[in-house]
Write a structure and sequence with these properties.
Chain C: It comes from Yeosuana aromativorans. The complex is a heterotrimer of chains A (368), B (240) and C (300). Chain B is an alpha/beta fold and 240 residues long. Chain B has nine helices and ten strands. The chains are: A alpha/beta (368), B alpha/beta (240), C alpha/beta (300). At the B-C interface, helix 1, helix 5, helix 6, helix 7 and helix 9 of B face helix 5, helix 6, helix 9, strand 12 and helix 11 of C. The structure holds adenosine-5'-triphosphate and magnesium ion.
C-alpha cells in the first residue's frame, strides 16, 4: 500500500507541476461552457412576429396590443389560417407565430382557462427559446390583470411549439456534450500520455523491474485522473447551474455515479491506447483521432444521430460517449430516474469492463 | 596567432546560484581546446553562452569575432555544435539527417547532394545510409553528428562530451577525425571526462565550481601539479 | 551461482543480438561486460532483468528462472538501464524518495549505501532533476538504483558522463556493496573500470569472445607494445599508420601504442623512418599491455 501511495504522490507532482497542462485542463471546460453559453443566449429586440387569431375577441386584442407595445416585438403580419404559418416562416422575416384558439375569451370565462400556441422558428433555437419566454411573460401579466379582485383565477395555457427543428439545441443541450468531450479528453488522453512518457523516458523499465505490480502501476496512473475528472465534471455542472441557471432535474447522486462510470470507461481507453503507442505523440494522435473525433461527431453531441446515414447510426452504437450523453440528457434535462436509463448504463458498464479487461491483458509486463 | 574565442569575466547565474563565475580565457585559431571539469562545474553552461543560445548574466565574450551579446545570429552561422544529449534525429535516416542539417545551414541542393555522398563514403555508411539513425550504435551516431556539425565549414566546432559512452576503438576514430579537422585550420572546443583524451588537446582548462582553476598545455599542467597523467591532475584539482 | 546464463539466443528481425551466450557469475562477484556499441550488452541486461524473453536458452538470477519466476526476480534485483533518465519535473530528493518507496525502503534506512555519491548532489536536493548537469543526473540515477539493497544489481553503463573523481568514488561504493554479498553485473565503456572487476566478459556482435579475470586477460596479449611519442602527435599517428610493418596504432593519452607485424622488431629502423618524415623528440619504449589494448586487439 505504501508503494502504491508513493506512486500516486509522484503522479500528483507531475500533474501539479505542469502548470500549462493544468491550466488547459481546468481552463478549457470553463472557457468552453462560457463560450457555448454566451454565444447562444442572446438578447432579442424588435423581433418580427405574426398573429393567427381564430377568436378575435377582447382578450386576444388586449394581448396583441401588449405584444405590439413591447419593445421586444413588432407584429408584421396577421394570418388567417393554419396553413399560412409555414409560408410566413419561409419568408424569413418572422421569427414566431402566436396562435389563439377559437373562442378564446369564451373558454376563459366558461372553463377558466384558454390555450395559446407560441410557434417559433427553431433554426435559431436560442432566440426561439427566448422569444417564447418573453411572449409567455406578456401573456401571464395579462392573466394577472384579469385575475385582479377575482378569487376564481383564470388561466391561459401557452403551448410552445417549434417548427423545423423540434429537438431544441441550447446551452442546456450542450452541457452534456461538453462534459462528455472534456471528460474523455482529460481521462483518456492525459493517462495515455502520462504512461507513454514513462516509456519514452526509460523510467518504465525501472518500474517494471521493481516490486510494483502491473495493477498497481495502472491504478496509480488512473486514480489521480479520476480525481481531476471529478473536479472537472463538478466545475461544469456548477457553471451551468449558476451561470446559466440550468436546472438539474434528476438525482445528483445518480448523476455522480454515472459520471464516475464514464470516467472509468475513458481511463480504460487511455490505458489501452498507451499499450499500443510507444511515444507521447502517438498517444496524443490516437486519442485525438480515435476518441475525440467520434465523440464530437458520432455521439449526437453536435449532429443528431437520427439524421445521420444509417451506417453511421449503427457505428455510433459502439461509441461510449453516445450512451453517456443519452444518460446525461435524461438525468439533467428530463429528470428521469435510474429505471429509465438502466439499459444505457448497462451498455456503458459492459464496455468499461471490456476495456479494462483488454487493457490489463494488453498491458506489457515486459518490453516487447 | 589569431584568437577566435575571447572571454572576459563571463558569468551566468540561475537565480541565486552562480553556475559560471567570471571566467576569462582565449582560444587560438586551429587549436584543440579541452574544456574539462567535474560534473556540474559549469562547462555546458559556459559553452551555451559561447554558441549564442544562452544569455550571459555579465562579462564579455567574442566568438569568431562576433559579440555573444549582440551578434548571436552571426556566431551561429560560423560555428558547429554537438550537444551533450541531442545531436541527430533518431527517426530520420542517415541521409535525411544530413540533408536536413545541410538545409538549415543554407547549403544549395546540389552541394548537399555532393556532401551527403562524400560523408557517407568517408564514414563507411554506404550500407546503412537509408537506415534510421536511431538504429545505429552510439559511436557511429556521434561520428555522423560530428561530420554534420562540420557541413557548413564552420570556423569553430563546439563538442560537448562527444565521446561519452563510446567504446575505445570508435573513440579513437573520433579523435582522428578531430585531429584531421583541426589540421585543416578549424578550431575545436571540446569537453570530455576521458582523461586520455585530455592529453590529445593542445591546451586544457579545468573548471571547478564555475571557475577556471588551471589552464595550460597537458605537459605543463602535469609539471605544475607534479602529476604523472592528466588523470592525476584532475583528481588533484576537481574537488577544489 | 547468482547469475547463470546458458545458450541464450536473441534476434531482432534480421539482427542476431545474442548468439549462444553462456556464463556464470558467483555470489558477491563484480562481473564486467565489455564490448563495443551494439554488441548486445543491453539486450543481455534486459533478458536478465526479466524485461525481454530470449528466443532460446535458459537464464536464472538469484536461483530463479527469468521467464517463469519473473515476479520473484523483480522483488530482489536492482536495475539501472543505460538510457535511464529521471523524472525531470521532480526534485533530486523527490526522485530518490520515489525510487526508495517503490523498492520498499526509505532514504534514511539506506543512506549509507549512497552517501559518497549523494552528498555531492545533496546541496542541490531541492533542484528539479531537469536542471541538473548531465553528470549530476547520472549520479542521481545511480543513487536511485542503489538506494535499496538488492541481491543482484544490474548496471548498464552506469558511469557514462560521470567525471573521473566521481567514477572512482562510485567504484569504491560498488566494492563496499560487494562486501555485503551483493552480486553486481556491470557494463562500461571505460577500460580502467573493467580492470576493477573480478572477472570480465568480452562481448562482440552478440558473441562472448573471452571470459576471465582482468589480469589473466591481459596476459593473453602476446604482442609487444611500444609506447611512442614525438613532437607532433597527429603526424606521428599518420606516419605510423603508413609504416609497412605496422600491426596496430592507437593513441593512448600522451603516447601512441604501437605493435609490429614482425616477431623481431628493430627500434632503430622505426626511429629512422619517423625522423626522415620530419618528426622530432622521438621516444620509443616497451609498454605493459592494458585491458584497453586487449579489448582493441580482440575487437579489431
Ligand atoms: N536552467 C538551469 N537552472 C538552474 N540551474 C542550472 C540550469 N542549468 C544548469 N544549472 C546548474 O548549473 C551548474 C552547471 O551545470 P552545467 O550543465 O554547465 O555542468 P557541466 O560542467 O556541463 O557538467 P557535466 O560534466 O555533468 O555535463 C549545475 O549545478 C546545474 O545544476
Ligand atoms: Mg555538461
Amino acid at each position: 500500500m505504501k508503494l502504491f501511495l508513493g506512486f500516486i504522490k509522484k503522479e500528483f507532482y507531475h500533474i501539479l507541476r505542469d502548470r500549462r497542462s493544468l491550466f488547459i485542463l481546468f481552463g478549457m471546460p470553463i472557457v468552453q461552457i462560457l463560450l457555448f453559453g454566451f454565444a447562444i443566449t442572446n438578447e432579442i429586440n424588435n423581433v418580427n412576429i405574426a398573429i393567427l387569431d381564430h377568436s378575435k375577441d377582447v382578450t386576444t386584442k388586449k394581448i396583441i396590443d401588449n405584444i405590439s407595445a413591447s419593445k421586444y416585438f413588432s407584429i408584421n403580419a396577421f394570418i388567417q389560417q393554419e396553413n399560412d404559418i409555414e409560408s410566413v416562416f419561409k419568408k424569413g422575416q418572422t421569427k414566431a407565430v402566436i396562435s389563439f384558439e377559437k373562442d378564446f375569451n369564451q373558454h376563459l370565462i366558461k372553463n377558466g382557462q384558454a390555450t395559446v400556441q407560441i410557434i417559433t422558428d427553431a433554426t435559431d433555437p436560442n432566440t426561439a427559446n427566448t422569444i417564447s419566454n418573453y411572449v409567455n411573460a406578456i401573456i401571464q401579466s395579462q392573466v394577472k390583470e384579469l385575475n385582479k379582485g377575482i378569487d376564481k383565477g383564470y388561466q391561459i395555457i401557452p403551448q410552445t411549439r417549434m417548427v423545423y427543428n423540434p429537438e431544441l439545441k441550447s446551452v442546456f443541450m450542450f452541457v452534456p456534450g461538453i462534459m462528455t468531450v472534456i471528460l474523455m479528453l482529460v481521462s483518456a488522453m492525459m493517462t495515455s500520455i502520462s504512461i507513454t512518457r514513462e516509456k519514452e523516458l526509460g523510467t518504465m523499465e525501472v518500474i517494471l523491474v521493481s516490486p510494483l505490480k502491473p495493477l498497481q502501476v495502472i491504478a496509480g496512473k488512473v486514480v489521480p485522473y479520476i480525481a481531476l475528472s471529478v473536479i472537472n465534471a463538478t466545475v461544469i455542472i456548477l457553471l451551468s447551474l449558476f451561470v446559466f441557471k440550468m436546472p438539474i432535474q434528476g438525482s445528483l447522486i445518480l448523476l455522480a455515479f454515472e459520471t464516475v462510470l464514464f470516467i472509468v470507461t475513458a481511463l480504460a481507453l487511455g490505458i489501452l491506447i498507451s499499450t499500443i503507442a510507444a511515444t507521447q505523440q502517438t498517444a496524443m494522435m490516437i486519442s485525438l483521432m480515435g476518441l475525440m473525433l467520434p465523440v464530437i461527431i458520432l455521439s449526437g453531441f453536435i449532429f443528431p444521430i437520427s439524421s445521420m446515414p444509417l451506417v453511421l447510426q449503427i457505428i455510433s452504437n459502439i461509441i461510449p460517449a453516445k450512451w453517456f450523453i443519452i444518460i446525461l440528457k435524461a438525468i439533467m434535462l428530463k429528470g428521469v430516474g435510474f429505471s429509465f436509463i438502466w439499459k444505457e448504463t448497462l451498455i456503458l458498464l459492459g464496455m468499461t469492463v471490456f476495456f479494462i479487461a483488454l487493457s490489463i491483458k494488453k498491458y506489457k509486463i515486459r518490453l516487447e | 596567432m589569431e584568437r577566435v574565442i575571447e572571454v572576459e569575466s563571463l558569468t551566468k547565474k540561475f537565480g541565486a546560484f552562480t553556475a559560471v563565475d567570471s571566467i576569462s580565457f582565449h582560444v587560438k585559431k586551429g587549436e584543440i581546446f579541452g574544456f574539462l571539469g567535474a560534473n556540474g562545474a559549469g562547462k555546458t553552461t559556459a559553452m551555451k553562452m559561447l554558441i549564442g543560445i544562452s544569455h550571459p548574466t555579465s562579462g564579455k565574450a567574442t566568438v569568431a569575432g562576433f559579440d555573444v551579446f549582440t551578434e548571436a545570429e552571426s556566431i551561429k552561422k560560423n560555428i558547429g555544435y554537438m550537444s551533450q544529449k541531442f545531436a541527430l534525429y533518431d527517426d530520420l535516416t542517415v541521409k535525411e539527417n544530413i540533408t536536413f542539417y545541410g538545409g538549415i545551414y543554407g547549403l544549395s541542393r546540389a552541394k548537399i547532394k555532393i556532401k551527403t555522398q562524400q560523408l557517407i563514403e568517408e564514414l563507411g555508411l554506404e550500407d546503412i545510409a537509408n537506415n534510421m539513425v536511431g538504429s545505429l550504435p552510439l559511436g557511429w551516431k556521434q561520428k555522423l553528428a560530428f561530420s554534420v556539425a562540420l557541413l557548413h565549414n564552420p570556423k569553430i566546432v563546439f563538442l560537448d562530451e562527444p565521446t561519452g559512452g563510446v567504446d575505445p576503438i570508435t573513440r579513437r576514430q573520433f579523435w582522428e577525425m578531430i585531429y584531421k579537422t583541426a589540421n585543416q585550420g578549424t578550431t575545436i572546443f571540446v569537453t570530455t571526462h576521458y582523461m586520455d583524451e585530455a592529453e590529445y588537446c593542445d591546451r586544457v582548462s579545468i573548471m571547478v565550481n564555475g571557475n577556471i582553476e588551471a589552464l595550460d598545455t597537458p605537459k605543463n599542467l602535469k609539471k605544475q601539479f607534479s602529476a604523472h597523467s592528466m588523470n592525476d591532475v584532475f583528481l588533484k584539482l576537481a574537488r577544489g | 551461482m547468482s547469475i547463470s546464463v546458458s545458450h541464450i539466443n536473441k534476434s531482432y528481425k534480421d539482427i542476431r543480438a545474442l548468439q549462444d551466450v553462456s556464463f556464470e557469475v558467483k555470489k558477491g562477484e563484480i562481473f564486467g561486460l565489455i564490448g563495443p556499441d551494439g554488441a548486445g550488452k543491453t539486450t543481455l541486461f534486459r533478458i536478465l532483468a526479466t524485461l525481454l524473453i530470449a528466443d532460446s536458452g535458459q537464464a536464472s538470477v538469484a536461483g530463479h528462472d527469468v521467464v517463469k519466476d519473473y515476479k520473484t526476480i523483480r522483488n530482489c534485483v536492482g536495475y539501472m538501464p543505460g538510457k535511464f533518465s529521471l523524472y525531470q519535473d521532480l526534485t533530486v530528493e523527490e526522485n530518490l524518495e520515489f525510487f526508495a518507496t517503490i523498492f520498499k525502503t526509505t532514504i534514511k534506512e539506506n543512506y549509507h549505501l549512497i552517501e559518497d555519491i549523494y552528498k555531492q548532489i545533496e546541496p542541490f536536493k531541492t533542484r528539479r532533476a531537469g536542471k541538473l548537469s548531465g553528470g549530476m543526473k547520472q549520479k542521481l540515477a545511480l543513487c536511485c538504483a542503489l538506494i535499496h539493497k538488492p541481491e543482484v544489481l544490474f548496471l548498464d553503463e552506469p558511469t557514462t558522463g560521470v567525471d573521473p573523481v566521481s567514477r572512482k568514488e562510485f567504484w569504491d561504493m560498488l566494492k563496499r556493496l560487494q562486501q555485503k554479498g551483493i552480486t553486481i553485473l556491470v557494463s562500461t565503456p571505460y577500460m580502467d573500470e573493467a580492470s576493477l572487476c573480478d572477472r570480465i566478459a568480452f562481448i562482440q556482435d552478440g558473441k562472448i569472445l573471452e571470459i576471465d579475470s582482468p589480469e589473466a586477460i591481459v596476459k593473453h596479449f602476446t604482442k609487444t607494445i611500444y609506447n611512442l611519442s614525438a613532437n607532433n602527435m597527429y603526424k606521428l599517428i599518420e606516419s605510423l599508420k603508413t609504416y609497412e610493418h605496422a600491426h596496430s596504432v592507437y593513441p593512448f593519452g600522451e603516447f601512441v601504442h604501437y605493435t609490429d607485424t614482425r616477431d623481431v622488431f628493430d627500434i632503430d629502423e622505426l626511429q629512422h623512418y619517423l625522423k626522415n618524415i620530419g618528426l622530432n623528440d622521438i621516444t620509443i619504449e616497451i609498454a605493459k599491455p592494458t585491458i584497453e589494448d586487449t579489448f582493441m586487439a580482440l575487437a579489431k
